Amino acid sequence: MPADTSSDPPHDLALDVRAAAKRFGRIVALDGVDLAIAPGECVGLLGPNGAGKSTLVKSICGLVRLRAGTAHIDGHPAGSRAARRSIGYLAELFRFPPWLTVDEALAFQQRLARSTGGAGERTRLLARVDLAHATTRRVSMLSKGMQQRLGIAQAIVGDPRLVVLDEPTSALDPAGRAMVRELVRDLADEGRAVLVSSHLLGEIEQCCSRVVILVDGTVRLDEPIGDVVESRGVLVETGDGVQRHSGLSEVDVPQLVRQLVADGVDVYGVRVTSSSLEDAYLELVRGAPDPAGVVIR
Question: Phi and psi of 161, rounded to 5°?
Fold first, then answer.
């Protein structure tokens, strides 16, 4: 059953989740989650095990019914026929019938998605994931990485407006991961909304324009990647507070301290920083010192 549709979502959003809540017995999986993705955006979804990522993804796909709140895809309630036509999904654990050929597997997905793209669409999609040479090969004969790329191809059958990828670089070698990152960016550039759920922070940092971090079923961070990842710098604790000197590294510290002392500044401590997505993630998930040395819990 689709979620409650008492409020009308804006139709310019590919994904609009409002106040999503879900419990499994006493376990709170989602606790008032809001998430909106516009066409052309690529959003990375991060969080520790049990944070609610899988529940959120499954509720977007209509596989889990929300206890409260709403989820809409292209203006349609999640799980409705219209919503299913607007979404492409790569599950973390997926399987194709092993006796099918690569081409047959995509043709089967076309029938499920009611795509009218035919052989031309299959040819284009297999070329995009570097499987054009393997159309007649049976799924059982594919490597795990090749099966992963086939899974990505089936997720964009029918030109969906929203593409949801759960661990899309799983089982891929470095070249395969680079190919997927480029493909994800291309999908967003083409005007699709893309949601990538992953444990690989480096992959999210390289291919997504925005990051959402779930902790204990709530959104703890929803920011553009550029606002989360700061440039390298030096933090100096002085008698007047903490100073940030951006663009400096450890080799600049002695000269910086000498200059500050010469200017009459009392220096009590110095720390070199290089803020990354991993820094922000760990700060939210397990607690880490902020620039002033205060532990955030």
Answer: -75, -30
| Whole-number Cα distances in Å, 126 to 92, 114, 130, 161, 215 | 20, 18, 6, 19, 36
Q: How far is CA 43 from the centre of its chain?
A: 5
Q: How many CA atoms lie within 13 A of 42 on its CB side?
A: 22
Please, are residues 77 and 85 in contact by the beta-carbon 8 Å criterion?
no
Q: How far is CA 108 from the centre of its chain?
A: 27
207, 215 contact by CB (below 8 A):
no
State both tokens at 152.
């990505």
Residue 56's contacts (CB-CB under 8 Å, 6 or more residues apart) are: 17, 20, 30, 33, 35, 45, 214
Helices (H) and strands (E) in the chain, counts: 10, 13
Find residue 211's DSSP bridge partners: 44, 223
pLDDT in tens, 50-105: 889 999 999 999 999 999 999 999 999 999 999 999 999 999 888 889 999 999 99
Q: What is the pLDDT of residues 177-218, one digit of tens each?
A: 888 888 899 999 999 999 999 888 888 888 899 999 999 999
Using a 10 angstrom Cβ sphere, with 0-12 exposed, 13-18 middle and 19 or more buried, the burial of residue 28 is middle
| Nearest Cα to Cα of residue 41 among 180, 181, 189 | 189
CA–CA distance, 242 with 95 (Å, rounded to integer):
53
194 and 180 Cβ atoms separated by less than 8 Å: no
Q: What is the pLDDT of residues 111-132, one digit of tens each?
A: 999 999 999 999 999 999 999 9
pTM for this model (two decimals): 0.78
CA distance 147 to 139: 7
Phi and psi (nearest 5°) for 57? -60, -45
- Crossing angle of helices 144-155 and 174-189, rounded to 10°: 0
